[in-house]
Amino acid sequence: MKIELINTEAEQIVEQLVAGVRSFNHEHMGDETSKPLTVVIKDDKDNVIAGLAGRTIYNKFLINVLWVDEKLRGEGLGYKLMDLAESEARKRGCRAAQVDTLAFQASDFYQKNGFTIIGTVPGYQGCPEQYFLFKDYD
Prior knowledge:
By secondary structure, the protein is of the alpha+beta class. The chain is built from three helices and six strands; from the N terminus they run αβββαβαββ. The mean pLDDT is 94.
């Protein structure tokens, strides 16, 4: 047995780990239905000015990141992204959504979009509190 600590991107190893988890999950959940879901808004020069990326898996929409250019915040672009992404997630059969965010980021935004804080991780010096939010589509 050999234990190795890797301090660089190890894409091939991560893929092996994910494949192992997927195999285990298949035994309990059946075929995985994971699909990426990304919505972007671009300006007239084709620059991304806002976007949301996540994936749908096992009838749930997992939001990884949502960003709106600072100059355009407050104009409703985040709500537009959420509306489009959640509409697509529902079409794919999702019955719920989840996201996590740091205290200084967007917990209020997600709550205004119908999410409920279901858990927190306390903050400490150098790391703010983290919120886990959930939204039931049923």
